[in-house]
Each structure stands twice: as structure tokens, then as C-alpha cells.
């Protein structure tokens, strides 16, 4: 899912058509040569202080094939960063695993040291900064990336730190695909464990619906294989329960035959046509063919450029049926721009990438909608406004199709009945004060939120309460608690849409 990266590419489109183009909490250990000579202050998941001795840190370093980074080390600042520069956190230590043994060593170290605050980073797209932390341990999986495809069995095996563009690239070279997100530098781990929307989801289901097995390092440091036959409770939980149960080190996906060329692009209209465009989306969105992904974007770039409203489409079925699927959209008349044509699917998957995503800070609010009534359309359009120093956008990614054909209790992902995921986002130049922009969108969201029913856990916000998270999992929550209690009774993996384990009986 595009989330914060999407607003930048959408604003770039708008601009092209409309106008010319935290402080450290502890002193880092002093290091002489390869040895760590001082203890390090850190925090546990509960916020308690804990001292990591130099000897313990040296022992951890000796058990790693990958790197152990402390503040001041080369590579530390790059590793701790995530894509949204609004989050400038400083972990006490960073482990960069190159394999499963390193991940197990890091998890054991975190657990044995009173349950260190633990963040796991794959692609760094976390909208609420969950893939980094202050004074805890960050496990940075960026050195643990590999994809293997078996074209005969139509299977792909993907290591935990891989990016979805790697899987698209390898699979499509053999005429195969599986549903992934819409920005190629998104981490597979975070995307898939949260559900996994994408351009092919209406046709083939969510990413979790195409997951055949997963290898998971759980809180006790054990490696567990999870599938329909082996540890099925864990397999159920990782398919939509986020990072609550451990670190997935390997994903096995079902692949599907698919032609490389798709019909994709945008139909762009002036913002004055927004109500007409929204009405078409409201009426036609639930009825589109399963091989037709239809997105909707309302965007206002910074400055004086007028706003735009656009459909973003990807038709992955037979090329000769694309125009039939597009016909209801064409009835809106001549657009400002029409970029829809035959395109390479892998290139389409890269089209939302941003070469310098940290140039813009952002904040978003999101929620699922079951339909788009007139009241929601008015709530969105009547108060939508731009600002000279910010990008403002509302965008939708569809549900329905194959997503809705899976029972809500078949996987931990419960939101099978949604028409779309609705996101409202603001972005501003990194270095500027964004408080006025975040305040505006929070107020704007108050008029929209009543039309939502739950949220996508990959869009977790800091404002989501424990009650909101519980309600979001619906009937699946109690089962998730049972899985959490089995595999993470101490809540080591809590930087996510957290499911708390059951309290220990006296």
C-alpha cells in the first residue's frame, strides 16, 4: 500500500499538470578498536531502565555474523532512519542480521535483558514510526534480502527483509505474480503480516491469502515453521496479526500465471469535477471486474496550483476487455490528462516510488469504509483545502473481489467486507514545522471518521487506543490473544497494532 509515499507521487502528478514544475537519551559507549569498553543504558518494553554491560554487548557481537551498531558507529544513523523523517529516534543498539542465526541471537538478547524495547525494520514504511525506537534495540533486516522462484511449482520463497519489488521482478520474469503492495521499496514483512493490499488483490486476494507457509522466530528465540499443517495457530495469526508473534524470516507464496503487460495509468480531472468523480467511484467501485483495480485520489499540491481528482487504474486481465472496464469512467468526458495505456507490470509497481522520500515529512489518518454514501462525499469535499506549504490528499484503495470471498475468520485479517481503505494525508518539506498541518488533518478527520469501520493495521496511528485495536480485530481478537499468549507471553513484540497476552494466572 502506498500510504505516505503515495502523497508525494500524487502531488508530483498534480504539479506536472497544474503548474511548472530527537535528541539522544544516553551517552554512547566509548569504543577503542573493536572492543566495547563501557556499559550502555537502555530501556525495556515497559519503559524501565536497564543497563547493558560491555561484556554482554561484546558477547552479542561475537555471536553475530552481521553488524552490531552503536551510536557513533559508521552506518548507525542510516540504519536507524525510516522513510518518514518526522521520526528521528535513536536506538541504544542496532543489529543488522545476515541470517536466521543472527535474528535468533538478537531476539534472545532482547528477551534476556529484561525484555528490551524492540523494533523491527524491513522497508521502513511504518506510518507511525514502529520500525524504530528510542533507547531500545532495532533489528534492521535490510541485509537479509533474497527471493527464489520455482516456476514449475509456482512458488516463491522470500527472506524476511526483502522488498516487494524484488519479488515482482523475479516472479514476473517467469510470467508469474502474486499480490503485493504498490510501492516497490515496501518491505514484504510488514506488508504481508498486516494483510497486503495491492493492484492484484481483487483478482488473487490479499498477500496473506497467497501465503502458504512462514518461518518465524518467536519470542523464545525458537525457529518455528508455520503452515496449515504445522503450528496452524501461528500461521493463522501471522496472516493479518502484524508483527505481534515474532519475526518472519521466510515467506512461501503461491504464484499465479499472468501476462507481463497490463493496462494502467491515471485519468485526471480538475478539482471542480470532484463530486462527479467521487459519485462514479461510489457507484461503480463495488461492481468493477475482479481483474480491475480502481483507485481514487483527491490532491492539492502546495502553492497556488489548483487541486486535482484522479482515478488510478490497473487492468490485469485480457487486454481486449480493458476498455469495457474503463467505459463507466470514460463517461465523465475529456480529462485533463489520460495516461492509461499498455504498460509493464513491474514498471507500474515502481511508478509510485520516490527517489528521495525523506525530503518530505508526513502524517496520515486512515480507516476502512464499507460504502461511499453522499454524506461521506460531502464530508470529504466540503472541507478539503490546500495550504501554501503543504501537500494535502485523500485517497482510496479498493477492497472487494477475491478479498471479500475469504471468510473473516479464515485469517487474522478480519476486514473482508470493506469497499476501500480511505487515507487522508498531509506532507510538508522536511525541516519545517508541521504542527499546524497535523492539527488541520486531525480536525478534518473528525468529520470523516464516523463513516469508517476499523483500520488497516499497516496504517496504525499513535492515537489508536487499545480498545480501538481490539475492536479492529473484531471476532478474531480473542483468538489472537491466545496465539500471542502462546508465542509471546511477555509481549516482547509490542511495537505494532499490539495484542496483549493474557495475564498470568496466580
Description:
Strand 12 and strand 13 form a beta hairpin. The chain has helices spanning 4-18, 54-62, 76-80, 100-112, 164-172, 188-194, 201-204, 232-238, 274-284, 322-330, 345-350, 374-382, 435-446, 466-472, 477-487, and strands spanning 31-32, 35-36, 40-43, 49-52, 67-70, 93-96, 118-121, 137-140, 147-150, 155-159, 176-177, 211-217, 223-227, 247-254, 256-257, 261-270, 292-300, 308-315, 337-338, 341-344, 360-369, 390-398, 420-429. The two termini are 43 Å apart. It contains 15 helices and 23 strands. It is 26% helix and 24% strand. The radius of gyration is 23 Å and the shape is globular. With 506 residues, the protein is an alpha+beta fold. It folds into three domains: 4-18 and 260-459, Vanillyl-alcohol Oxidase, Chain A, domain 3; 31-143, Uridine Diphospho-n-acetylenolpyruvylglucosamine Reductase, domain 2, CATH 3.30.43; 147-258, Uridine Diphospho-n-acetylenolpyruvylglucosamine Reductase, domain 3, CATH 3.30.465. The strands form six sheets. Strands 16, 17, 18, 19, 20, 21, 22 and 23 form an eight-stranded antiparallel sheet that branches. Strands 9-10-14-12-13 form a five-stranded antiparallel sheet.
Amino acid at each position: 500500500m502506498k500510504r505516505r509515499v503515495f502523497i508525494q507521487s500524487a502531488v508530483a502528478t498534480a504539479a506536472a499538470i497544474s503548474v511548472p514544475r530527537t535528541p539522544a537519551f544516553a551517552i554512547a559507549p566509548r569504543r577503542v578498536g573493536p572492543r566495547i569498553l563501557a556499559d550502555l543504558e537502555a530501556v525495556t518494553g515497559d519503559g524501565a531502565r536497564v543497563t547493558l554491560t560491555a561484556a554482554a554487548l561484546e558477547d552479542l557481537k561475537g555471536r553475530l555474523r552481521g553488524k552490531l551498531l552503536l551510536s557513533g558507529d559508521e552506518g548507525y544513523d542510516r540504519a536507524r532512519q525510516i522513510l518518514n523523517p518526522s521520526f528521528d529516534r535513536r536506538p541504544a543498539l542496532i543489529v543488522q542480521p545476515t541470517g536466521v542465526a543472527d535474528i535468533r541471537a538478537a531476539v534472545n538478547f532482547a528477551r534476556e535483558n529484561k525484555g528490551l524495547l524492540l523494533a523491527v525494520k524491513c522497508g521502513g514504511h511504518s506510518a507511525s514510526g514502529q520500525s524504530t525506537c528510542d533507547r531500545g534495540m532495532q533489528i534492521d533486516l535490510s541485509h537479509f534480502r533474497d527471493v527464489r522462484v520455482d516456476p514449475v511449482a509456482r512458488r516463491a520463497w522470500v527472506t524476511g527483509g526483502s522488498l516487494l519489488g524484488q519479488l515482482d521482478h523475479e516472479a514476473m520474469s517467469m510470467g508469474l505474480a502474486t499480490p503485493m503492495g504498490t510501492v516497490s521499496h515496501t518491505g514484504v514483512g510488514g506488508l504481508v503480516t498486516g494483510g497486503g493490499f495491492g493492484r492484484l488483490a481483487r483478482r488473487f486476494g490479499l498477500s496473506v491469502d497467497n501465503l502458504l507457509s512462514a518461518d518465524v522466530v518467536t519470542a523464545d528465540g525458537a525457529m518455528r515453521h508455520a503452515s496449515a499443517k504445522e503450528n496452524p495457530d501461528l500461521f493463522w495469526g501471522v496472516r493479518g496479526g502484524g508483527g505481534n508473534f515474532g519475526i518472519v524470516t521466510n515467506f512461501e507464496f503461491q504464484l499465479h500465471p499472468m501476462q507481463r503487460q497490463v493496462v494502467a495509468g491515471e485519468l485526471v480531472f480538475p478539482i471542480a469535477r470532484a463530486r462527479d468523480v467521487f459519485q462514479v467511484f461510489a457507484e461503480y467501485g463495488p461492481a468493477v471486474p475482479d481483474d480491475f483495480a480502481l483507485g481514487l485520489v483527491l490532491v492539492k499540491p502546495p502553492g497556488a496550483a489548483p487541486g486535482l481528482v484522479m482515478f488510478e487504474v490497473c487492468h490485469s486481465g485480457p487486454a481486449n476487455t480493458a476498455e469495457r472496464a474503463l467505459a463507466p469512467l470514460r463517461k465523465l468526458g475529456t480529462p485533463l490528462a489520460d495516461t492509461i495505456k499498455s504498460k509493464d507490470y513491474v514498471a507500474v509497481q515502481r511508478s509510485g516510488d520516490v527517489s528521495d522520500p525523506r525530503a518530505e515529512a508526513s502524517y496520515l489518518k486512515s480507516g476502512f469504509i464499507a460504502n461511499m454514501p453522499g454524506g461521506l462525499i460531502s464530508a470529504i469535499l466540503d472541507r478539503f483545502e490546500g495550504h501554501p506549504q503543504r501537500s494535502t490528499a485523500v485517497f482510496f484503495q479498493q477492497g472487494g473481489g477475491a478479498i471479500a470471498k475469504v471468510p473473516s475468520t479464515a485469517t487474522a485479517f478480519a476486514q473482508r467486507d470493506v469497499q476501500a481503505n480511505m487515507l487522508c494525508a498531509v506532507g510538508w518539506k522536511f525541516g519545517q514545522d508541521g504542527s499546524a498541518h497535523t492539527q488541520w488533518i486531525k480536525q478534518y478527520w473528525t468529520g470523516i471518521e464516523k463513516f469508517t469501520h476499523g483500520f488497516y493495521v499497516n496504517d496504525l496511528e499513535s492515537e489508536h487506543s487499545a480498545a480501538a485495536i481490539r475492536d479492529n480485530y473484531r471476532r478474531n481478537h480473542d483468538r489472537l490473544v491466545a496465539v500471542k499468549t502462546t508465542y509471546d507471553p511477555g509481549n516482547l513484540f509490542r511495537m505494532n497494532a499490539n495484542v496483549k497476552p493474557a495475564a498470568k494466572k496466580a
